[in-house]
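Incident log entry.

Two folding requests arrived from the same account within the same minute. Monitoring flagged them as a possible duplicate submission, but the sequences differ. Recording both here for audit purposes.

Request one:
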Amino acid sequence: MSGFSASIVRSLSFFATLCICTQASGQSGPMELIKNVLAPTSKTEDTLTVKETEKPVSLGQLRNFQTEIVRVKNTLRRRPDTTEVADFIPRVEALVAGIETTLNDREIALNLRMIGSILNFINFSERSLTKYESELGDRLNVLAKAKQSMDSIEHRLSKPKLLSDQPYQSKEFNEFLTQIASTFDATAEELKLQQIEILRFDSKVQNIRLDLQELAAQLQFESRRIADNIFSKEIPYLWHPLAARDSKHLERVLNSAIAYNSIILFRYLRVYMAETIAFIILLVVLIFWFQKTYDRILRDNKNKDIILSRTTYIPNFPKYSAALALLSLFVLFYPDPPMVIFSIGIFLVGTITGILLRKRVQKPVFITWCVFYVLFIFSILSNLFWEIVFEERHLIMFFSISGIVVGLIYILRLKAYTKELPKYFVYISWAYVAIEFCSLVFNTLGRLSLSKMLSITATVGLMQAISLIIFVMIVKEFIYLQIELRNQKNSDPTSSNDYVKLKIKTLKVFSLLAVGLWLYFFLKNLSLLELVIEEVSLFLEKPRSLLYAKFSFGTIFTFFLTLYFATFLANNLAYFSEIRDRKFHHNRNKRFGSQVLLLRLAIIALGFFIALAAAGIPIDRITIVLGALSVGIGFGLQTIINNLVSGVILAFERPIQIGDTIDSGPDQGVVKEIGIRASKIKNWDGAEVIIPNGNLLANRLTNWTLSDKKRRVELTIGVAYNSEIDLVTELIQNALVSDGILKFPSPLVLFQNMNESSLDFRVLFWVSDFEIWIAVRDQAMRAIYHSLKENGIEIPFPQRDLHIKSFQREAIQPLADLDEIKESKTNNTESSKE
């Protein structure tokens, strides 16, 4: 855009602003506002006029005018603070001028990172401009209303007319009128000055916005040009000599990089000061929380050795672990961060990662890490250069070769020395080596920009991969320690099986988050993030149609993603409640039990409606689906709906809870889960049996632990007929004195039956816990047996005498033939030996 056309646009912008202010003040056009604002106001003591047909102003009306003028003066006193916008405008103007100078300088070779940083600066500068425009526009509306009030007062006042009227010739009236006229003049002058000032700021803001839009269009064009020529040769091949450059070129590039990055850094932090303060506060709170968690585990938990043996990073470095956990997510706090913010965050994450690895890996691996860390620092610093520096060619080549060597050594030593990183990290290391090799090849062929981009991406990507893997482990450890803290009143730590399941669930969720963050950083370094986001957005938002239905993949994706998160939350809520219920297995009232089912249903239902709202699906279409579903229920889904409704009834009536021991038909076991459609019990053989909820309500159900966990045990003891009954009763009573047997109700020993071979006694006693009744019965039977044996009481068993009246000779003959055969074989063997 030429300078002449830009001037026209700025003039039109200023004219449009005046039009808006004119409409707000009720005037007929912009020229009237210009005359009222810029021309002197005719409100001196000798020139105020009014129509002759109007009645003279009364004293009461003068007091109303005075009140209105005071209200306008108070409005003018509450003038907005324009210090921020006054400071913002020259800074942005200077930076825009510098960037335009850089773009017009043909000797400066731009890179995509420089363009991306400038576009980021333009984006958050436009957000600031939007805020300033809103504030200035609101102030202009307020001033327009004040000027409308002042114009109304001026229209009614007529000092010469008032002074000539006899009824108003009193001295007090004239003094009061003179005072109002003086106040009116001063207030009108202040109003005019404020309007001019606000209009001047608004005009400058509009001009800066136009400059930024023009600059953004030019940068986007330059970005597309560089992207199209990314594979083009920029410098001669490695075996050709490179033209000598001015020695001051590198110094100038370095100084300009420092200057531009400093301006963008401070400007960005100033705009997002609230986010920065919140980030720092959250970091301090998280560090304190991690340290407090570790201290409580170390001080209060009896099983601290078992618990801490399952963790790696938090016990050794609680503060650094907290810092890494939050810094890995810094991009979630800063929208669209520029490269300088991005580089600072990556540097802090990489440095803390090295501290955490110091005591977790062997010395040879850590030495290799230190070498890689040097390559990482070089990549970050090189990434902040705004221009292509051809002097970097040999340095980039050296670091590419070093990266290949370090990557290969790292792969070999990882297999031998450490198990802290997952197995797939070897493949990430191989990818790093491959990208560094491609960087070396492109550097040799004169594609310096592409070579540098690949080298930086490979190094920063590998560092991010290591950091995010450790980040997932830290989050897993922290969740596990929080569960142990909540269960520290119990004597046992979380079981090994629960720990493995918790680890798997945590790793799945946060591994997915880590992969997303890694892709973000990877595309950011390749300067492809905006392109990928734009292409994906176009694909998801493109309207599509199937028959008469119109949809987009974005709405479908949003719908299923929301449902997935709702289902995920509901399932994990059930899992953690199961762990908690198992800790309180002895107290049924403290368990969540079937109440979790209601909460799961509520979460899934709420997630479904949120998914509908997020996807923009109208309710009338849902009614059609529900109508079709009701038809399906009538034809073939009765059983499923019956089970769903039965699950809700189980949740409300609570005939069973998670952890109860039940009998349902032939199945007996402990309730592990009360699902929406079916419930799960674990039988005594270790198998998990799935029982539909409808069967639990329709069939007979025995709950051994509904009101309490007591159980009565019954034994039948038989003794010989020559035994003394009272002695046997006393011995059995004494044998039933045990810790596991309840004293109330007291054990009973009843003489029940005189059998054909024994005298039978019926023994009844109660145990306190259903889970131990088999062990208590075993102890009781052993004690009864030893007591009876020591006192000579015989326990009879069935005996049978066999009387053989006759034996057939035909049955004896085959046995005799068998003996002859064996004897002949023995003789043949002896003869063969001779």
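Request two (distinct sequence, not a duplicate):
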Amino acid sequence: MLKKLLISVTMLITATTFAETVTLDSCDNPQSWRFSNGAEFKGARGKISKDTESEKIALEYDFSKGGKYVSASPKAAIPYGTEKIILSLKSNTKCRAEYRIVDATGRTYHGKTRIMLNGKPKKCSFRVNGSWVGMWGGQKGLKQPKFPLKSFTLLIYGNKTKPGKVIIESCDVVCNAQQKITFDCENFNLNGSGWDICGTWKKSASGPMLELKAENTGTATQATLSIDFPNMGRNHVQNYYLDGSKKNFTFSYSPFAFQARNPNNAYQLLISIHSSNGDYSRKKIILAGDKSDNINFGSPVKSIDIEHSTIGTCTHFSYAAKDQGPFRSWHNYRPLLDMISNAGIKWIRDVVYAKKESDGKYHTNPYDLEWIKYARSKGINVIVLLWLRPKTPVEEAKKYFEAIVMETKDLVDVFEVGNEPENFGFKPMYGGKWNGYAGNGKLDRWVHEFLKYSNAVTDHIKKVRPEITTIGLGAAPSTNFHLLNLGVTKNLDGVTEHAYPFALTPEKMPWGWVMEERDGIKTGDKNCTFVGLINSYAEQFKKIGKMRSLWITEFGFPSYLFNGKNEKKIYMGYSETTQAIYILRRFLLSKTLPIIKVSCQYDFIDDYNSNPFNPEANFGQLRTDRSPKPAYYVIQRMNSLFNGYSYDPKLLIKTEKQPLHKGMVYSRLVKDWDSAKIKASNEVMAFGFASPNKPAQRMIAVWSTQPYNGEASSRCCSIRITEGAPYKEPPVAIDMITGRSFDIPARVDGNDLVFDQIILKNNPIVIKIIR
């Protein structure tokens, strides 16, 4: 992992034989401490403030209206092996100090030590294993606190008639340490709203501590300095308020006061300044544990550095040879192929054309050879679509395609024969229904004519180049099934499927048993699932006696807008965020189905100048102006995270609980799809992936199959990984949409690894489990 490292800070976490005194809190930021007025004894008043003279925090109290004590607790996490908490205290009047500790079980221990303060500075030592005057709650029978400690609290008992304050000048711990976790921390500067912010990392007992200095440049406004720390479900946000009438401020921020410490994680903190007039500035910094270099968090990987991948995208370079028309955005192919390469996409699928030259023979378009060669130089594999046109005699078509196949030797090994015959060429020429089923067990003529033409071309190109992979059909699933039953040539190695959900979620398809009467054949399963459709292809291959691979050469989700006139289109108009999430979910699901060799999203850049109201103009990962949509970065991150990984069926994962609030249960997706109702899915999916290059790591992809709408804050699930117990390092979860990583609790149950409470939002996550 590439990082700019300016300082390393050591954190102590486990007990052993040597002692060390380190700072727990710098005592200069009231927001780093919690105040209590001893609520069981009503009447006490007070607060934690900043003493103007010493610039340290002060615990103020007033018992004139009752109460018994007030208290202050540092928010910083107390290290394992802590023996003593040492405070330097100074009181402006006579008072008494006592303390409490709450341990890992929630048990409270009230210390016997009573320290009298009388206006002079005093160093006060509070033992963790002490003599206790009281113990209650938590695990009964425990005589001493159990680590990790949840809190330490200083209690002040003062004069009933005279208010006072105790200044806390320092807060240190004496602890034993065996293991030291080093966090690499990045110092930084941030300017905004008239403030110069300098962030410097320092060492403390609870881990790295960030010292923030805010300087008024003379034009400062009232502003808020925020630190956003990634957390499962809801991030922790710490705000510091900057008064524009003052010159400067100093704050201390301890990230592990609120968060577990994971040496495998590289936390992405977002530092921002925002003012009431709308000014906003932001900085991203990384807080990386000393084992995080072993973890890939999704840094981009180029296509040439990916050895094997099933991920592809559709391109239209061939249409743009003349730099005109609705596909002219594809003409300058180099920067587009560079972006495809930078996203780690391994496959592209496009048409290639040929022309009869003066020698009377067909030759491949030189422009097509150019972009193919450039793609191959970037490590990108090419699927060439051979577009069948029934008006061209088949013998002439053989010559035409032979030229392309032979002149792309050493460049292209996969050829797709035919494309959506129900839309292009065959049905328009011969007539009939889009699915080719005429009823009463009969098929339309166009289906038979397409099969003869496709078989003839496939046989010929396989004859001239036997080593190539031939794929084809590319009709609707039910038509593909009919074609397979009629007799597809054995020279066809794979079947192409255009798996568009149209208006459904990516786990669903408008194909299933409920469509049998319409199509004259049964496809998919009873619930119209994508997995069911793919599995039914495998069953169909087995039935006809030849197992073939399956190639998803088109699928996608358009991000067009509804305008009152286009609502009857077959495609849903998805938001760009939804498009990104749905493409990701479909790619992840496709990775779990070994029969699928390649899955190509349609398409890389919008066509038709990104016309906002045309579905066909909005399938791209990029808009026509080449500005990326969220989908581009999501696919880039996925390709990096899964580089070298494949589905691991041996990693047995069971979703044990997936409760839903009654307002979150979806009953159907579509009320009427050709007279069929398609039910919604409410399940959580979880699949395991492994890499031979990372034998000590596994990845678990987890997501909710519900429609994306953002209404609910989250849902919860628990999963059990059978025989997962050897993975005892703290796991790391990565939000695949934002790229931010966070910690996720896990426990060992016998030989199983259990995640009891995964809080899922709308975004799929990847959990990395480590030996």
